[in-house]
Amino acid sequence: MKELKTYRIAQIFEKVNSLDERKRCLLCGKVVCNVRNHYYVHFPGKYACSLCTAVYTRSDTLLMHCRSKHPELNV
Predict the structure, then answer these.
(1) Is the model's pTM score more than 0.85?
(2) Backbone φ, ψ for residue 26 (5° rounding)
């Protein structure tokens, strides 16, 4: 399998046509409405929980996860 590298969002999406807001992913060919959500399909987050398999794209979301799922940490 070809190794994926991190791309800017604008580099991996192209407009389907001028009348449509949807964009095509150049990595997999899927046509999507929300490019940011689809971007994370190929490039998942870098903030991983040390106690379970949860991975997030934002540090504050990881902090919320830890507080709700692992209250014994007292974060």
Answers:
(1) no
(2) -75, -10
Dihedral angle, C-alpha 41, 47, 48, 50, nearest 10 °: 180
Structure tokens at 67: 């507080």
Question: Mean pLDDT, 10 residues at a time, over the chain (75 residues)?
Answer: 65 91 95 91 87 90 95 79
3-class secondary structure for the chain? CCCCCCCCHHHCEEECCCCCCCEEECCCCCEECCHHHHHHHHCCCCEECCCCCCEECCHHHHHHHHHHHCHHHCC
To which residue do tokens 């991190």 refer?
A: 6
Residue type, 56: Y
- Amino acid letter for position 43: F
